[in-house]
């Protein structure tokens, strides 16, 4: 079960072009902010699926249950300016056009640290987007994501801040049989 955070993580393995997920997924996952958590999620859409939203309460899978006093809160809004069919997919076919923008956030406070109770808070915010359109004799797909992640500590421990970015570009050719794809990942700041 995935918390509503990060296009890279919400896109199923079977619908991704890259062989593996990048740093934009790995850093939030290593902190338990996303991916395979237990919780409750509220989903909805408006304007014929052009606006989709999700919000919920989740258990952080990295922090042990006895150290979590309150659940993690996560939410996401997707704005779909083109087609609304299967927005979490890296490769589309045919003449439909996708222009998607996603905004997401997550926060969990009152995490017991190694020394003091209620001494840690995790916060994350991100934006991602995808364009997938016919271009010339093929299809152009561009996908990008940036996430800002912050671990706030009470007391002598230093806060940790990270920014994780990803951009990927692919072009579908040979009568929709081959799509070369290039991806760039970058981590800035304090890594977990």
Model description:
The protein is mostly beta strands. Helix content is 6%, strand content 48%. It is built from two helices and eight strands. An eight-stranded antiparallel sheet has the order 1-2-3-4-5-6-7-8, covered by helices on one side. A hairpin with a 4-residue loop joins strand 1 and strand 2. The two termini are 23 Å apart. The model has no long low-confidence stretch (mean pLDDT 81).
Give short descriptive properties of this protein.
192 residues, mainly beta, 2 helices, 8 strands, elongated
Helix content: under 10%
Separation, N- and C-terminal Cα atoms = 23 Å
Rg to the nearest angstrom? Answer: 18 Å
Given helix and strand content, the structural type is mainly beta
Largest sheet, strands/sense/barrel:
8 strands, antiparallel
Following the backbone from N to C, one meets helices and strands in this order, namely: HHEEEEEEEE
Instruction: Give the integer mean of the pLDDT values.
Output: 81
Q: What is the β-strand count? A: 8
- Apparent shape: elongated
Present the secondary structure layout:
Layout (H helix, E strand, L loop, with lengths): L6 H4 L12 H8 L8 E8 L4 E8 L13 E9 L17 E14 L8 E16 L2 E16 L6 E13 L8 E9 L3
Antiparallel strand pairs: 1-2, 2-3, 3-4, 4-5, 5-6, 6-7, 7-8
At a glance:
The chain has 192 residues and is mainly β. Helix content is 6%, strand content 48%. The chain has helices at 7-10, 23-30; strands at 39-46, 51-58, 72-80, 98-111, 120-135, 138-153, 160-172, 181-189.
């Amino acid at each position: 079960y995935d918390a509503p955070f990060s296009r890279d993580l919400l896109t199923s393995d079977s619908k991704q072009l890259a062989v593996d997920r990048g740093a934009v997924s790995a850093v939030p996952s290593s902190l338990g902010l996303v991916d395979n958590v237990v919780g409750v999620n509220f989903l909805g859409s408006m304007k014929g699926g052009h606006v989709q939203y999700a919000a919920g309460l989740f258990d952080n899978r990295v922090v042990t249950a006895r150290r979590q006093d309150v659940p993690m809160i996560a939410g996401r809004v997707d704005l779909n300016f083109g087609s609304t069919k299967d927005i979490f997919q890296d490769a589309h076919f045919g003449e439909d056009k996708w222009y998607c923008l996603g905004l997401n956030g997550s926060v969990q406070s009152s995490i017991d640290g190694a020394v003091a109770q209620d001494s840690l808070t995790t916060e994350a915010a991100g934006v991602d987007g995808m364009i997938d359109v016919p271009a010339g004799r093929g299809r152009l797909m561009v996908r990008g994501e940036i996430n800002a992640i912050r671990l706030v500590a009470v007391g002598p421990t230093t806060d940790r801040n990270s920014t994780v970015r990803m951009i990927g570009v692919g072009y579908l050719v040979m009568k929709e049989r081959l799509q070369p794809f290039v991806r760039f990942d970058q981590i800035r700041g304090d890594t977990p």
